TrEMBL record:
Tagged with keyword Transmembrane: no
PROSITE patterns, per the entry: GST_NTER
InterPro entries referenced in this protein's UniProt entry, alphabetically: Glutathione-S-Trfase_C_sf, Glutathione_S-Trfase_N, GST_C, Thioredoxin-like_sf
CDD domains: GST_C_family, GST_N_family
GO MF annotations in UniProt: transferase activity
Protein name from the UniProt record: Glutathione S-transferase
Length: 315
């Protein structure tokens, strides 16, 4: 049985990035479908309360956020690489796309399907995730601006594809392709490809690139229940983080910290620092249900605050 477990739901575009990554790397994986609206008590036990989706689990190691999930899958199976032109360009493009297009994409999406979104979904997204009202009426006043933004950014994709080849950073697919694909996938899948292609003026290069990415597929998955995933975590021992005591702000291993996303769903996860470097932080959490787990986060886009005072002395 594969060690890789993805907690996700079908309509989640951030999950689609990772499903495609699993397909691209030819990895077998276990699929745990979670509710689109919390509560997700078993997933909360695994993450310490991080509330976004997807989450990757490998035994007792839990990876929160697609950036650190990319990295984990790259470690598990280095080839084909997600960083054919280096990590910097892929990560920078990914962060730009996710941060700049998420709200505009939601604005365009709800213009098409907003009336079908249940009240409890909208309330949850406003109160606990986005912090704004994503109903059709709530987003409508800014719709022209959302279309303008998406169109501008999609043009940049076209320019990259014209200059660089089949993929954004060159001849080979990178993590940036999977990221920049996902919100356009969300729109085309839910609103109709023809309508979105016309509204956002998607260039033929962008449409052909999306077709190439869609053709990757999701690889070989096996369904798993949340209870089975929890049992896997409980039976496993976390891997050595292998990052050392290298937090750039001087927080020492052994310190109690909170790790919180800096954009939305700002729920702090509390644990003991077990490893950190400039790109990743790993904290240990303990619970009777899952035993000891190591929870991994990227550094970009997250804030780590020491709660106990055991800062490393500056070298
Ligand atoms: N930066 C995060 C963003 C993840 C994210 O926003 N995911 C959406 C689903 S596509 C989400 O969690 N929505 C709220 C929820 O499902 O609870 C990542 O890259 O994983």
């Amino acid at each position: 049985m594969s060690d890789i477990i993805l907690h996700h739901y079908d309509l989640s575009p951030f999950s689609e990035k990772i499903r495609l990554t699993l397909g691209y790397k030819g990895l077998d994986w276990n699929s745990v479908i979670v509710e689109a609206v919390p509560p997700r008590p078993l997933l909360d036990t695994l993450t310490g309360g991080y509330r976004r989706v997807p989450v990757l689990q490998v035994g007792a190691d839990i990876y929160c956020d697609t950036e650190v999930i990319f990295h984990a899958l790259e470690r598990i199976k280095p080839a084909p690489t997600l960083y054919p032109t280096g990590e910097g360009i892929s990560k920078a493009l990914s962060l730009w796309w996710d941060r700049s297009t998420w709200k505009p994409a939601i604005g365009v999406l709800v213009d098409y399907i907003g009336e079908h979104l249940p009240e409890e979904f909208l309330k949850d997204r406003k109160d606990n995730y986005l912090g704004y009202d994503m109903s059709k009426e709530g987003m409508a006043p800014m719709l022209p601006a959302y279309v303008q933004q998406m169109t501008a950014f999609a043009d940049w994709l076209a320019s990259m594809l014209r200059e660089n080849g089949d993929y954004l950073t060159g001849k080979h697919l990178s993590a940036a392709d999977l990221t920049c694909y996902h919100s356009l996938w969300l729109l085309r899948a839910n609103c109709g490809a023809e309508a979105i292609d016309a509204q956002l003026g998607l260039a033929p290069e962008v449409i052909a690139w999306m077709d190439r990415i869609a053709a990757i597929g999701h690889g070989n998955k096996t369904d798993m229940t949340p209870e089975e995933a929890l049992a896997v975590a409980k039976a496993a021992t976390p891997a050595h983080p292998g990052l050392g005591d290298n937090d750039p702000s001087g927080i020492a291993v052994g310190t109690t910290v909170t790790v919180t996303p800096d954009d939305n769903a700002r729920v702090p996860v509390t644990g003991t620092l077990v490893g950190a470097d400039t790109q990743e932080i790993v904290i240990a959490i303990d619970s009777p249900e899952a035993g000891r787990l190591h929870v991994h986060f990227p550094r970009a886009g997250f804030e780590t605050i020491a709660q106990s005072n055991s800062a490393r002395s500056a070298a």
